[in-house]
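TEACHING EXERCISE
Course module: macromolecular assemblies
Task: Read the component lines below, then compare them to the predicted structure of the full complex.
Student: A.B.
Group: 4
Components provided:
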Amino acid sequence: MTNTIVVTDRLTKRYGERLAVSDVSLTVRSGEVYGFLGPNGAGKTTTLRMLLGLVRPTSGSATVLGHGPGEPGAVARTGALIEGPGFYPYLSGRDNLRVMARYQRVPDRAVESALQRVDLAERGDDAFKSYSLGMKQRLGVASALLGEPDLLVLDEPTNGLDPGGMADMRRLIVDLAGQGQTVMLSSHLLSEVQEICDRVGVIAGGRLLAESTVADLRGGSTLLVRADPVDQALAVAMRVAGDDAVQLLDDGLSLELGEDWAPELARALVGAGVDIREIRPSERSLEDVFFEMTGDAAGPGVGAAAPVEEER
Amino acid sequence: MSTTTTEVAAVTTAPGRTGRRTVPGPLAGMAASARAELLRLRAWPAVWVMVSVWLLLNLTFTYVFNYVAYATGSTSFATEGVASDSLLAELMPSAIPQIFTGGMPMFGGAIMFILGALATGSGFGWGTWKTVLTQGPGRLAAFGGTLAAVATIVTGVVAATLAIDVAASVLIASAEGQSIVWPSLGALAESVGAGLLISGMWAAGGVLVGVLTRSPALAVGLGLVWSLVVENLLRGVGNLLSGVEYVTNVLPGTASGSLAGALGAANEPDGDGTPGVLTVLDGGPAALLTAAYLVAFVVVAAVLMRRRDVA
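Instructor-supplied answer key:
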């Protein structure tokens, strides 16, 4: 068994004039939770569709579980929920899963355990069309879980869930990874990705901007300093941390230094006659990194941001 | 069973003994898809509505109206000018091979078309094709499963039609004190085969248009306008312009209508008694052309399903 589950090489999809996905090269490793992070319309779903063989790439290639995307060897071992659950509205949730179980050639008892894992067993006999958005989403995840696939591809799995449902879903995903299943999930919720993903790929405007562990993306911690007079404090800080490691902020300084340096910095500042108002360590959130990376492309409020590509 | 590769094991083990997905071969994938599609199609009220409407239409127009007309001595629009003896003869079991396919080219065909269009077209709007195509069977295997399920339903409908025709004619024969004369098995088989071809062709047409339009409503609308209006209009134009006739003579409706007509459903002297039943082509060419349409519809639909992006 290879260590990489998904590899793409300059995967590109063009719809007419619009470049939906451009030269995306990413790697998902065995047993990890891979977060695919980007604003709405960034190309996340299109990339996932290409990995599942639903959409043909315009150029570039991909390998999923050692097979080409869409080949039975890849599809049969992948459980997927893509852009909202698609089920027969007139069938009950349970019967919908039974139909999928027939397609997969797994027994009906697999349906029961899948329903229980997403907490739908009690409502399993209700028609799919009567389900709330969150219940439909959970049925979609149950269908992806069916048949114990090696790879789970979940497109915005917490869409439409209430806070409790979101927490349950995150726990479920972490559990699945604990069992050795590889999970590739897309999200526009940075906190979600920060919480459960081992590695993330950041995509905006169809391009993969970065791929790394969450910790690496966030980088080391920084020290925030508020002191008077500022120019004197700046000079001291640059002496302690180095010229390039200090940034002047609106209300103080930001130093690329670990927490351990705080006492020494304080002594240096006091020695130079600077009045210290505050020194505190600060960790960058994934959100800060994300906005830095996507710049104006994402704009404030990633979740509500307009599709980037369509505005061009 | 423990010595084989995964591919062979997937084919030979009982489906899903382990509860884990296995990689299916093309045939195993198609069989699994057919089982899955039959499960969801037979639980679909729309399918039962369509099938019941056809069976009811067939019973009413083939037997009930004609028998009432015969019994009361009145004439209806369908029986005008037909001698009452020949009217009764048509209602006997021995006449089943002649009248069996009479309603299929137009009414039965339209209903089978809707069935096929619903079976494939609605999956795009619901997003179920997307779900189905990520389950394991390859695209062709999954689509083949849908085709097999639709074919099973069409076969069931033709069988039910035969059962109803037999029951109705036996009932009428015994009510009228007539001795029951069964048709020859050969003639009956020919007629049932023609019924399968006609119904199958229209269902395959629905499947294709459902795939083309990706919308059941548009597919059903187009199909009905085609089979009920456009072909008839073209035939009308064809009577005036000789060039158009070459085209209208080989349309699907002409082929299936002529097939029914060749079996004797066109009982009236002018040959156009039952709507949709024609005598444009002889039986052999009509059967061949109908079969060719059936195959062509299926192949084009399969190619589209295999190649196209599924949104």
